[in-house]
Design goal:
Blueprint: H1 2-20, H2 24-43, H3 51-60, H4 73-108, H5 120-134, H6 145-164, H7 172-195, H8 199-209, H9 219-237, H10 239-245, H11 249-254, H12 259-281, H13 287-298, H14 303-327, H15 336-357
Helix pairs in contact: 2-4, 2-14, 4-9, 4-12, 4-13, 4-14, 5-6, 5-7, 5-8, 5-12, 6-7, 6-12, 9-12, 10-14, 13-14
């Protein structure tokens, strides 16, 4: 009797575990895509680098491996001081925004939630503008002034969105409209702040706001990496919480979860990682919207899949966009944020249309 009672339950539990388990083929495929994208990114540009020489140089950086090097000293400098730092920065920023988007979508139960649409990027941008343009120093302990200012601006924006929506996590439309209002408010404040700067400083800050990944060294990478590791780990560890929150607050409490605390932790981590990304790259829209949706379409709806795979695909996506930014109008360079907007805005319209059609 006991066997008959528990056998179906055990089978259901095993099936659910398989559905929420991280797919090894998907992980390998996404990682391979990221590696190929990184390789393409470091070899493309005004000064083309040979693929074989780049591979030898990268493999030679591994301990105990010493293949014959074929790059000249100038090519080595381009690879290690310009191309590779920029490509790694693009991958980290893309991973940051993608994980933040997945976290916001899970917390607000809204597939249209995104750091840009919720006003978080605009808030972080305003904080960064105040730090860059006016020398606002909000450094705290080991946290530098720019990421701290961006984080406070982002936190203010997301708090404002939730307050305007009256804490309504169950009404995606209201929350989304509140985020649009916050984005408009903070963008207007950014514009006003820019008018108070001299022409040279205003041009520098404006160029940064359009989204850029230009770097001449590893400084921005080393600045962003700790935030990606810390906030990314928090989001990954709370992926199961996001799956439970999809069932509703009452069901989550019955399963031993405290919805308010889980939301607070996830929103804090997503806001921190967004602010850190904005502080080194400016405003880059729609990465946090497009990437989680692609993962859902390809793999599944569990956040235990969406969060880690979004990080990998987000890095590959932005590294690919950066190739276009550097080559489409060479020798000039397009702002990365312009290209992501060209890709993301139609994608957003399609998602919105499909949701409306499904009602």
């Amino acid at each position: 009797m006991s066997t008959r009672t528990h056998a179906p339950t055990d089978a259901l539990d095993e099936a659910a575990d398989r559905a929420f388990r991280l797919s090894v083929p998907a992980l390998v495929g996404c990682t391979a895509l990221l590696v190929l994208t990184v390789l393409a990114s470091v070899t493309q540009g005004a000064a083309g680098l040979p693929v074989e020489g780049v591979v030898r140089a990268l493999v030679g950086a591994l301990p105990g491996v010493e293949p014959a090097q074929t790059l000249s000293s100038t090519q080595e400098a381009v690879l290690w001081q310009i191309r590779l730092p920029r490509t790694m920065l693009a991958a980290l920023v893309g991973a940051s925004l993608a994980m933040a988007g997945a976290g916001y979508q899970g917390v607000f139960r809204n597939p249209l939630a995104d750091p840009y649409l919720l006003g978080v990027s605009a808030g972080a941008g305003l904080g960064a503008v105040l730090a860059l343009g006016f020398g606002l120093d909000l450094s705290w302990g080991p946290i530098a002034a720019l990421p701290m200012a961006a984080f406070l601006g982002a936190l203010l924006a997301v708090t404002g969105s939730v307050l305007v929506a009256r804490g309504s996590f169950r009404d995606p439309a209201t929350l989304l409209l509140a985020g649009v209002a916050m984005a408009a408010l903070f963008s207007a404040t950014q514009t006003y702040a820019l008018t108070r700067l001299d022409e040279t400083r205003s041009r520098e800050v404006l160029s940064w706001l359009f989204g850029r990944l230009a770097t001449s060294g590893w400084g921005p990478v080393t600045l962003l990496l700790p935030y990606v590791l810390l906030a990314g780990a928090v989001l990954w560890l709370h992926a199961r919480h996001l799956d439970v929150l999809r069932l509703g607050d009452d069901e989550a409490r019955s399963l031993g979860l405290k919805p308010s605390r889980s939301r607070l932790v996830v929103v804090g981590a997503a806001t921190l990682i967004t602010a850190a990304a904005v502080s080194v790259s400016g405003l880059i829209a729609f990465v946090g919207l497009v990437t989680p949706h692609l993962v859902r379409l390809l793999v599944g709806h569990s956040y235990r899949l969406i969060v880690p795979l979004s990080a990998i695909l987000g890095g590959a996506f932005l590294a690919t966009v950066d190739i276009g930014a550097r080559t489409l109008v060479a020798p000039a360079e397009l702002p990365v944020g312009v290209i992501t907007a060209f890709v993301g805005a139609p994608f957003f319209c399609v998602v919105l249309w499909r949701r409306k059609a499904g009602m």
